[in-house]
Amino acid sequence: MTNICQNSLLQPKTRFQLLATVIVNIIMFGHGVGVGWLSPTLTKIQTPDSPLDFAVNIDEISWLGSMLGLGSLCGNLTMALLLERAGRKFCIYLIAGPNVCLWILIYCASNVGYLYAARFLCGFTGGAGYVVIPIFISEVADSSIRGALSSMLMLSVNLGILAGYILSTYLAYHIVPYLGILLPISYFLANFLLPETPPYLLKRSQLSAAEQSFRYYRNQQTGETSKAQFEELRTAILAQQVQNKTSLSYRDLTTRPALKAFGAAAVLCMGYQFSGVFSFINYMSDIFASSGSVLDVNTCTIIIGVVQIFGVYTSTIFVDIVGRRLLMLMSTLGVGIVCIAFGCFTHFAQIYDLSEFNWLPLALMILIVYLANIGLIGIFFLVLVELFPSKIRSLATSISVIFLSILVFCTLKLFPLFLHFWGISITMWFSAISALLTFVYFLLFLSETKGKSMIED
């Protein structure tokens, strides 16, 4: 009972940490809406009743998907350059602009180039957010609830994806941008409530501002306890600065702990993308159409959106109780096994009459998406940030997310082509092999990072 109370997100000392997490994740909700918007919209614009004045072919569809990866890469690079120089809050404000522009482009689209640009900006929003927001949260959150607060990033994205699925399915094409543009505007305004993170201010020798920020996020305006905790943080930051006195060099990136962390991060990124779970989310309607399911593809897509939320909510509850490693192992093993089953069903459905089991593709995809979201998706960025030593954390996280963005571009570009030329069965088996190989690596080499200090290695 004591442990549950200590981990409560609503305890007085962590309420403003929860508020800050909710505010900064408004933009990730908006990013999710932009991601979810694509799948039902692709179905609409490939019909004779398309709301647009131009048609799209399979090659253009693959580019529409993959532009998210290119935008994400540019967002990663931008944040890597600005994060330490300009601060967390400046970077957080910066993300709002591209998200506003993407909805303007969607509304004004007169050719496919507008949609390419909109997807690029959607990717930029996500790529930037995935770098700065986990670091921001890790620097303001108590270690006892850091996992739960960090998990809210993917919960916000998944809620946004569900909203995007629903809005683009049931509302007219030109109505959705009016609603979507409200999110980055409200996010920008709400962020005026939040101060810069205490660790960043201490690194900039802004002692008074750092103490005020620390008291704000701990909801302790006065008291010796707060003063002692702040001094403890200041001592830890000073010790870290002394340790990191020499500027970051190539050797810091090639130490044994750093290389081990880079190896785990590379496998984490490849497992996330090659297992197909992110591609499934972007092309969900096409997957159900290819699987032979007789259920309405957009209805199935919305159901999957709901399942994502339950999956991430599960990870939010258990991440600080059972740890990161167990959730990752359950997730990768489960996704691998169920992807094999999905591929087998679609393979045998081409040979035998399995029409009485036409509900099975939806049931299997529910399992895949739920299992992916309790670990591989839900706590991906939490684990990524926690893997690296403190001295190289910002740079190493940026490098890893850049690598992830390159993989996102490749997988989203290739996935519709794989579906078209290989068929769904082989595509699903490839995803299964990738997930199972990731499971084996995690079983052998992934260390538990639950409770790890973000200041000390």
TrEMBL record:
Topology term for the membrane: Multi-pass membrane protein
GO CC terms, sorted: plasma membrane
Protein name: Facilitated trehalose transporter Tret1-like
Pfam families from the UniProt entry: Sugar_tr
PROSITE patterns in the record: MFS, SUGAR_TRANSPORT_1, SUGAR_TRANSPORT_2
Keywords of the record: Cell membrane, Membrane, Sugar transport, Transmembrane, Transmembrane helix, Transport
Biological source species: Drosophila pseudoobscura pseudoobscura
Transmembrane segments: 18-38, 61-83, 90-110, 116-137, 149-167, 173-194, 261-281, 301-319, 326-348, 360-383, 395-415, 421-446
Subcellular localization(s) per the UniProt record: Cell membrane
Lineage: Eukaryota, Metazoa, Ecdysozoa, Arthropoda, Hexapoda
Entry-linked PANTHER family: AT22075P-RELATED (PTHR48021:SF33), PTHR48021
Major facilitator superfamily (MFS) profile domain mapped to chain residues: 18-450
Annotated InterPro entries: MFS_dom (IPR020846), MFS_ERD6/Tret1-like (IPR044775), MFS_sugar_transport-like (IPR005828), MFS_trans_sf (IPR036259), MFS_Trehalose_Transporter (IPR050549), Sugar_transporter_CS (IPR005829)
CDD domains: MFS_GLUT6_8_Class3_like
GO MF terms held by the record: sugar transmembrane transporter activity
